[in-house]
Backbone:
DNA sequence: GTAAGTACTATACTATAGTATAGCCCTATA
DNA sequence: TATAGGGCTATACTATAGTATAGTACTTAC
């Protein structure tokens, strides 16, 4: 085992969680959905209306994805007709810091690019 | 102009920088390339060897992308034969915080998922 | 009975990201 | 003269993300 191998192991164990985090956040719709849900639990149709441009198919897919990742919870009300809502989980709250730092860096980056500094 | 419109404006101005940041970081190869370059400037072939599995085509494409975004700088040495190296810019250093928070959250997330807590 | 809303799913398509393979032009070395 | 390395680019392919459009099964309101 050489230094480079140690380094390589180190890299992998650094990169894997970053990949995990990016996978959870990435794609065109996940963040907008999270934002829509920050103001409280919402029904499928409500989210669909707030997240402009999303198709039912994508919303359905993304919500399932986010449910698997523990970011949203699906609540079914036992009424007639059945009412379904989606709500952010406590786990999704822990994303706050990540989102903040992405936002801050994104703003800095945009300024640099626009100012021609880069 | 209603409350919802104000909210909507707010959302867009929050989401845009996040999108910007994610675009810069996303894809399979950008982070591994950044990691490879943290240990100093490297030549095309060296990066290619350190970032296991990347094809020349992708490396070429990603490096150009990162150059446009001001993350790496291409240095051409006026020797025979010409020597080309890539080096991280000061701007890419500002990504440190983002990467840290992605990594931390990714680790937390992985633990939660594996423990079945989610 | 028909129109409209709710929460979806199905099918088929396009666009973008990534892979596989090869080749080019240069130079140094055997 | 051939072989290998360096720094790419070209072409063609596959895989994944996203879009467009339609349909289903239910229920309430007109």
Residues:
């Amino acid at each position: 085992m050489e230094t480079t191998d140690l380094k390589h192991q180190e890299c992998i164990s650094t990169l894997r969680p970053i990949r995990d985090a990016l996978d959870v956040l990435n794609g065109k719709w996940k963040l907008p959905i999270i934002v829509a849900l920050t103001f409280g639990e919402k029904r499928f149709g409500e989210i669909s209306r707030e997240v402009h441009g999303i198709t039912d198919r994508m919303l359905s897919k993304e919500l399932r994805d986010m449910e698997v990742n523990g970011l949203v919870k699906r609540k079914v009300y036992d009424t007639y007709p059945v009412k379904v809502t989606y709500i952010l989980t406590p786990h999704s709250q822990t994303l706050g810091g990540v989102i903040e730092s992405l936002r801050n860096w994104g703003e800095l980056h945009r300024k640099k690019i626009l100012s021609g500094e880069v």
